[in-house]
Write a structure and sequence with these properties.
The protein has 380 residues and is mostly helical. The chain contains 18 helices and four strands. It has a two-stranded parallel ribbon. It holds the Pfam family Sec1.
């Protein structure tokens, strides 16, 4: 046909521009591409002005040419420029900017609850992909310990995307990614009849009610506590964020990166300082120290004692079971490049994924499910 032909291109670290662009924030891609274009133009202009230069200056220029393949760099620059233009079109789209504003407002706690729920409803009615809308609702649920208007949103999801959306919501609820938000007083109201039936004293009833309210408040503000203790949201200028792992998400530091950042520090700034914060996160918490086992033998040679100056950096393996995002990897690369980190970080994972891709794996369209009894009839 007359359409544009798609070409697969393999990127690796030999591409100087790609090795830089893969770790920068999307807002900085254009400036990096422009800087590379300016550099290549300066090299080309220098070639045109070689006439009348000394032999030493010509040798320096030839050395620079050996380090920079001008024609190859121009081809790669053209490719990255095309990608940057497509990226610019995506990130300047009104739907993207509204979604980004909503997500940042959720994490920072600066947006009213009804506003991002209204945005989710608008996105549903405008035909936004189901994983994209559910991703926002899951973020809302995790940050605010549940979603208001949960039942109304379930009905709207079924109307727009069919009954399969309810099966997807059920999958998310089973994993704890999405749930209905309960008011802090709902538990107290339901407890009043139990107190009367058990003839509990007024003082004891007041104590139970106070503890229940405390539990509710703690649950609701768990994200706020975690955000403060781990400094997950960095309210700083772009220049200041460039020196912190939060640059990857425009001011949000991934929890995984913050945990690794603390883990590579020497005691008492390591894991021990995060014990209370880690209790807020779901899942079990354990720490196990493994000592290298060496079997002595005739070939066993004791390594020489190295001085402090020649001490090698530690190698830290960070394993993500289930998947990790590209931005998290970029944040860990940044952390590994920091000299004060004192460790070279190697990332291993079962999958490179994204928020929408993760939600997409849980989507259930009900199309492949046989009707009830179909399997039994087939066996007969």
């Amino acid at each position: 046909g007359g359409g544009d032909k798609k070409v697969k291109v393999q990127f690796n670290s030999s591409d100087t521009l790609f090795s830089t662009l893969r770790d920068v924030n999307f807002e900085q891609v254009g400036s990096h591409v422009k800087a590379r274009a300016t550099f290549l133009k300066s090299v080309q202009d220098e070639k045109d002005g070689l006439q009348g230069k000394s032999v030493t200056e010509i040798k320096e220029y030839v050395k620079k040419l050996r380090e920079v393949n001008i024609q190859q760099e121009k081809n790669l620059l053209s490719l990255h420029t095309s990608i940057a233009l497509r990226l610019k079109g995506a990130v300047t789209d009104p739907s993207f900017t509204r979604r980004l504003e909503c997500e940042q407002g959720l994490l920072q706690g600066t947006m009213a609850t009804d506003k991002y729920l209204d945005h989710a409803e608008d996105a549903l009615c405008c035909g936004e992909p189901l994983p994209r809308v559910l991703r926002l609702l899951c973020l809302c649920s995790l940050v605010n310990n549940g979603v208001r208007r949960h039942d109304a949103l379930r009905s709207l999801l079924a109307q727009v995307h069919g009954p399969g959306a309810l099966a997807t919501v059920h999958n998310l609820e089973r994993l704890g990614l999405l749930k209905k938000q309960e008011s802090a007083t709902s538990g107290i109201t339901g407890l009043s009849s139990q107190i009367a039936a058990a003839s509990i004293s007024v003082a004891a009833a007041g104590s139970i009610a106070a503890n229940l309210v405390a539990e509710k408040v703690t649950a609701v503000t768990g994200w706020d506590a975690l955000r403060r203790r781990l400094n997950l949201v960095v309210d700083a200028s772009e220049e200041e964020r460039d020196g912190d792992v939060s640059y990857a998400y425009s001011g949000y530091a991934p929890i995984s990166a913050r945990l690794v950042e603390r883990a590579v520090r020497p005691p008492p700034q390591g894991w021990a300082s995060l014990e209370e914060s880690l209790k807020i996160l779901p899942g079990p918490l354990f720490q196990r120290t493994q000592e290298p086992k060496r079997r002595p033998g005739p070939w066993d040679i004791t390594p020489p004692v190295c001085g402090a100056q020649s001490k090698p950096r530690r190698v830290v393996l960070v394993m993500f079971v289930g998947g990790v995002t590209f931005s998290e990897v970029s944040a860990l690369r940044f952390l590994s490049r920091q000299q004060q980190g004192g460790a070279s970080i190697v990332v291993a994972t079962t999958k490179l994924t994204s928020g929408e891709a993760l939600i997409g794996t849980l989507c259930d369209t009900l199309e492949a499910r046989p009707p009830p009894g179909a399997g039994a009839g087939a066996r007969r």
